[in-house]
Amino acid sequence: MTATPVQRFALAARTATFGRTFGDPVLLVAAARLRRTMRLEAGASPKIVDAMDAPLPDGPLVDARPDVDRLVADARRVADAEKQLIDDLIREIDSAWPKKPQPIASWSGTIAPGQAARFRIAAGGEIAIAGDGRAPVVLSAMIGGQMMRDERALRSCAYMIQDWGTDDAIVDIGNLGRSASAIVVAWHD
Amino acid sequence: MVADSTDPDRRRLMAATLLLSIMPKSSAYAAPTPDIASFPDIEGYAISDDLADMGRSLADPVLLLAALRAGRWVAKPETENGPYGTATIQHRARSHVGDDEPLRTAIDAMTLVATKAPPAYDSGTVAIPGKKRQDVTTFTVPEAAIMRVTAVVRSPTTRRPALRSVVVISNSPDVAKSSPLRTTHEVRVRPRDRLTLRLENLLPEPLTCRFFVTKRKR
Lengths: 189, 218
Fold this sequence. Notes:
Chain A is an alpha+beta fold. Chain A has helices at residues 5-22, 25-35, 68-77, 83-91, and strands at 38-42, 47-50, 102-111, 115-121, 126-131, 137-143, 146-149, 157-161, 169-175, 181-188. The chains are: A alpha+beta, B alpha+beta.
């Protein structure tokens, strides 16, 4: 098993986005199952700065936050003909690996339009974000004078690893929409 | 009646409206209906692949089932027996499912799930040696359409510029782009056009790339 808890958080957010866009209960349960493998613990609060202009990622605006209870509720709502299967899968969510959820640092908050939450991630660290889908959120990182973005980012979720040299990454999570957006950030140094 | 911005009641109303517009709404907030067509195919393939990788490493049949479902929604263009193909993932999922009969039935029934995705025309995985350029697919177009040609570096760890790509249609070079991890072209084609995807590895070490040729959804 090579995936870190932050990578699993990022995959849970992307799978939640996919499942909510297509209304697929199996994907929503899978996102909940991934999310159950970690425990979010409050980390350092970010500095709030003005958001930089940046290209918007692709994709629909949809809630990417992989909250287990909401994912389960959403899965039940769209289960239709698969209700029995989905109920069975929901009962098994807690059996996901690992048995004990792994702790990761996190921050939950709201970013106003035109503002960004700024984090500092050490070399080798990684960070993932999941937004509520009310506004596009963009993760951009400045590492050693170079601007980096997640090539796979959707409008409400993204993931970055700092694998360049020994510099810290300055990571800005900017709200480029017109509404405030609630986000969840998970990271490790 | 003309609104007076100096009216205290009016100003309070404007302030309240502004505050409401920037405050997080309650859980009763109804998200807008997601736009399926705007979901990028390539991200659907990537999520399906990543769920398959995660499901394999965790021996988790639910994640493998989700990988199959994700691939169905975007008509993931894989050969049945490739590493990310339906047959391979189904086989893995069955081997981990134990005596969970409903889950086994769901995995067996995957081929029956209808997809709303457009057809995918070609795909594959190629290894490109360091600092080399090669044609990775040549494809005859069956219909007039806007085709989307995408190449992705599979390793998510590198952030360095790694790829440059060119799409050639009937021997006419299109615009070249480069990207750290992904490169996508959209080209308008006519029936019987020949379309070639040419990739160049900008790094000294070999890269593994996946490529996809699909029709744009809209």
